[in-house]
Amino acid sequence: MTEALQKNAAKLGIDVFSGFLAIEILKTKNAVCGLLCIEKKSGELVSFKCSDIIMATGGPAGIYADRVYPECHTGTTSLALLAGAKAQNLTEWQYCLASVAPRWNVSGTYMQVLPRFVSVDENGTEYEFLSEYFDNLYEALSMVFLKGYQWPFDSKKVLEGSSVIDLLVYRECVLRKRRVFLDFTKNPFNMDKIEYEKLSAEAYDYLKKAQALFGTPIERLIKMNEPAVELYRSKGLDITKDYLEIALCAQHNNGGIAVDMWWQTCVKGLFAAGECAGTHGVTRPGGSALNAGQVGSLRAAQYISQNGNTLISDDTFEDILSKAEKAHKEQLEKISKAYDNIDELISKAQRRMSDNAAAIRNKANMEKALKETLTDIADLSKTAGVSDKSKLYTYYKLKDILITGSAVLAALIDYADTVGDTRGSSLYFDKIGKLRQGLEEIFRFTEENGATRSKVQETYLSEGDFKCIWRNVRPIPSAEDFFENVWRSYRENRNIY
Fold first, then answer.
1. Which H or E element spans position 272?
2. Is 97 exposed, middle or buried (0-12, 13-18, 19+ CB in 10 A)?
3. What is the pLDDT of residues 150-201, one digit of tens each?
4. Where are the alpha helices (DSSP H) in 210-266?
5. Three-state DSSP class for 242?
6. d(CA 307, CA 322)
């Protein structure tokens, strides 16, 4: 979709500036007046004077180590927050099982063919860990099958459903510090032959209709969906003979930057469209991504065409720009050193978020993670080092990850304090210690009671710290459905008000 849109932009003669990373939204009072960027190759600062900005930079994928997002996709949410925009529902994400290298969802037939789940410790010892939890191995296989349908982690499918598989993978990866793999070359649990009729009726009937009641997982996968095998082969991994490493990964941010009905933030002239906008909802219903991306960008463009912000004078812009450039040059001078450690610092920050602030959320751990993140931000000019101008832009990647991560942590902690209920694609530890037998060390949780569905959590920067408030959801507007009135309004103002 984005490739097609880019080709169309080229046909229309729209200028595309490539090779730059945006590092600051320039403002006058509470309105956008320009954008400051860094050219990646040269490390030089480059500015764009403009009256309106549409951010379409995707969700803040960079804050997590375990993620399905493409490697190049990290997001720039902190730019909007630092410019004064609010975020909403930053607590709401979608997590799922995915392969680590290459990154890809292991949903659908990858699960329905019943692969073997294997973890490997630091000594290379293998564990077929599902058998530690399930007394009935055919129940385990049935739950694996269901992951094909129920691929996002869902707190409602933990007690009675396939999301227990996600939790067991989390336990191996995060708590036991093991690597987890799917093995398609052998049947699970040393079964020479699976007695398929012992599976759940749903799993048995599906595999029977697919004519896949035979062989090994890879043989079943080739029978049911051979392109799924070729996909990994095209990415350099042959799952007919190699293990496939997986983890419980972040896939989508359902919250994001708060916008109005025209996808404009509370900063005049700053719009957010696509996943960086917090318009997807707790459970990300079908069509929400299309609405956020295509509808959101169209609405923003329509608004700008009718009520666009005003360009400021060159002199005023130069004054604002010179102050911003001076501050950034001072930052870059401080981190220009004889060594490079940005990649190491990024990995550290991402690992901290995946281990403490992803699908499984413990308030004490999140508070510790926030404290460490804020310390890293305060010490950044002392600890970060870049030796080459062509790598200076990576400093801003690190800065974005840390600042966005601190905003997400502040939102998670506030949610734990004010609500505390498990909901969506996450589990919160509760205060009284309810346990699920066999997984006591992973989570204690209470299920959502629905009391907060009429509220929206907003997160914003105030005096150097991220604060949270709760507002009521906006009422559904009453529509004018008499054609002549709607048509007259459109002729007068394109229904933009």
1. strand 270-272
2. buried
3. 889 988 888 778 999 999 999 999 989 999 999 999 999 999 999 999 999 9
4. 217-234
5. coil
6. 28
Alpha-carbon gap, residue 254 to 74, rounded angstroms: 15
Q: What is the pLDDT of residues 102-124, one digit of tens each?
A: 999 999 999 999 999 999 999 99
Q: Which amino acid is at 238?
A: D
Of 81-95, 343-357, 413-427, where does mean pLDDT reach its minimum? 413-427
Domains and CATH numbers, the chain: 2-92+254-472 (3.50.50.60), 95-251 (no CATH)
DSSP track, 165-196: HHHHHHIIIIIS--EEEEE-SS-GGG-SS--G
Residue 144 has phi, psi (to 5 degrees) of: -60, -45
What are the two backbone dihedrals, phi and then psi, of residue 213, each rounded to the nearest 5 degrees? -90, 60
Percentage helix, strand, coil for the chain under 3-state DSSP, each rounded to 5? 40, 20, 40
> Rounded to whole angstroms, how far apart are CA atoms 121 and 176?
8
SS (H, E, C) 62-99: HHCCCECCCCCCCCCHHHHHHCCCCEECCCCEEEEEEE
